Amino acid sequence: MDINTKVVNRVPHIILLYWVIKIASTTLGETGADMLSMTYKLGYAETIVLFMVAFLIFLGIKLAIRRYEPVTYWLTFTASALVGTAISDFIDRTLGLGYAGGSALLISLLLIILLLWYNKEKSINVERITSPSSEIYYWLAFLIANTLGTAAGDFVADQLGLGFAEGAMIFTGSLVVIALLHYLTKISGVWLFWLAFVLTRPFGATFGDWLTKPFEKGGMELGTVGASSFFAAILILAVAREAWLERSGRAIPELD
């Protein structure tokens, strides 16, 4: 490579603001997909088609930009969270695989994608994505991980009978442990990222369900519309902050 050539990163650094936006986005994915498929009775299949089309459109724009641009990136990510929720519910309920079966299927798919990604790129580092092929693997893995997280959250809250609030607390504790492992041990940050990435999704799913479900089911009965509006507002504010950091030159630098 020419020494004067700059390689531009296509994705954000994994800092605290990333996780704030990610949790808001994945929780919105749970409440928003439920709002359309159940509250407005659009159905799982129709919801999948709607958000898959949105995901593919945003992904096409994101790939064409060939750099990290916060609004486009998080629109693509949120679309993957929304379609992931609908796909998970379709697998678990419509296809009848159940939460455990759906989770097992999705874990297998995620491991296959990560293996193919590593075999092609020799890395699954999510903070350095500089080519179209690695970014495609990146988004495929994110889509499957978001779908897996929904299934895992439903499995803990419903099938194990722990409830939504208790499920959210379990996943919160797991994320705290991962954070401690990151700061106190030499365990690979890449693998800790993927654990945290998958587990923030069921946290968002159980927390979102806890907010939206009726009192008799252990929820707060805020409804899918109210909860979705709340998390959409958080997401917009956090992405606006990220966009400001990007414009001010305090975000991702170019790579040598």
Which stretches are low in confidence, meaning pLDDT under 50 for 5 or more residues running? 1-5, 252-256
How do the SSEs run, as a string of H and E?
A: HHHHHHHH
Rg: 18 Å
Oligomer: single chain
Name the overall outline: globular
Distance between the termini: 10 Å
Major β-sheet annotation: none
Give me the count of strands: 0
Structural class: mainly alpha
- Beta-strand proportion: under 5%
Return the domain count: 1
Query: What is the typical, i.e. mean, pLDDT?
Result: 86
Report helical residue fraction.
Answer: over 70%
Helix count equals 8
Keywords:
single chain, 256 residues, mainly alpha, 8 helices, 0% strand, disordered N terminus
Structure description:
- The structure is a single chain.
- Helix content is 75%, strand content 0%.
- Mean pLDDT is 86; it is low at 1-5 and 252-256.
- It has one domain (16-247).
- The chain is globular.
- The longest helix is centred in the middle third of the chain and has 28 residues, at 132-159.
- Helix 2 (44-65) runs antiparallel to helix 3 and helix 3 (70-94) packs across helix 5 (132-159).
- It has helices at residues 16-39, 44-65, 70-94, 98-121, 132-159, 164-184, 189-212, 223-247.
- It contains eight helices and no strands.
- By secondary structure, it is mostly helical.
